[in-house]
Amino acid sequence: MADNNSLDGGETLRRQINDQVMIVQILVMIFLCINLLLIVTFFKKECFYATTRYILFAVTLLSDSLMLFISDILLILSYFRFTMQVWLCVIISFMVLLYLTVTPVTLTAMTLERYVAICMPLRHGELCSTRRTVHCILIVHGISSVPCIVILSTFFASASLSFYKQYQICSVQMFTFYAWQDYITSAVQQFYFLVMCMIIVFSYIKIMKVAKAASGEDKKSSKKGLRTVVLHGFQLLLCLIQLLCPFIETSVLQINFRLFVNVRYFNYIMFNLAPRCLSPLIYGLRDENFFQALKHYASAPFHCVKALIC
Which residue in 44, 203, 220, 245 could disulfide with 115, CB within 3.0 to 4.6 Å? Predict the structure, then answer.
């Protein structure tokens, strides 16, 4: 009787995991299609890739798309219990960890751009030129690489050479051997969280002061910038909570496997997919110029089909 209950429970869990994987595939496909449309729209108009906020927006789209694609591939490989050599997993995980951090750091840079545009409008053209934006993207990637270098450095210091040739299911958790590795990773991520939160709060307060003092069109622009910073802050919060998810999942795994499956699924939807659907909302739909271009290029295929039919 106990065996039957165990089999039924295992079958139910298996069916639940199947459903969750299918739902994730649908969501990832939808978000990747939306991001692709936005990226195409960005490159279609020259004024977009000559403006700092649109360039940084495109960086978040590319970063999010790459992150979604690689993480989804790892999810599918894990679902089918596919193993690979650890050295290959290290390379893939470096990409995942890098672009996991690129998005929140880029969001912080976008918040600073809004601060300069609203609080220092006379210096905006100088500080946010195309050349400086390229330098900013390089700095963003350099800053974003620090946490993954720290994580992998603690792994290199702990793993034996023979371990790299072993076949394992690729996941970030496999890089942790000792508790002190978690402490170092947590310290670095909390430091990043604190710095980015301070920048968001500083920008919000400064823009709020300008919004109160402004009048007419300036007041409208300032309030719109204020709402953008709030949305960036919320998106940044979701991205940064995601950095803590592996620690939560490791603790839950020691308690109950079914609970671990549910918590990991919730974390992936809430803190991985959700923040990456906010970027199209903030700049793809709320920005009037981008929205008009998006409408034009999105409707073009339908006009072609209509012309062929008629």
Answer: 203
The gap between the terminal CA atoms of the chain, to the nearest Å, is 68
- pLDDT classification of 142: cutoffs 50, 70, 90: very high
CA-derived radius of gyration, the chain: 22
Q: Report the CATH fold assignment for 14-307.
A: Rhopdopsin 7-helix transmembrane proteins (1.20.1070)
The two three-digit tokens of residue 175, written as one number: 């890089």
pLDDT at 139 over 90: yes
DSSP label at 85?
Answer: E
Q: Report the C-alpha gap between 87 and 166 in whole angstroms.
A: 9
* Number of neighbours of residue 277 by Cβ within 10 angstroms: 16
Domain coordinates in residue numbering, the chain: 14-307
What local confidence, expressed as pLDDT, does residue 141 receive?
92
For residue 10, pLDDT over 60 is answered with no
Distance CA 140, CA 138 (A): 5
pLDDT at 11 over 80: no
Neighbour-count burial for 214-234, b at 16+ CB within 10 Å, e otherwise: beeeeeebbbbbbebbebbbe
pTM: 0.81
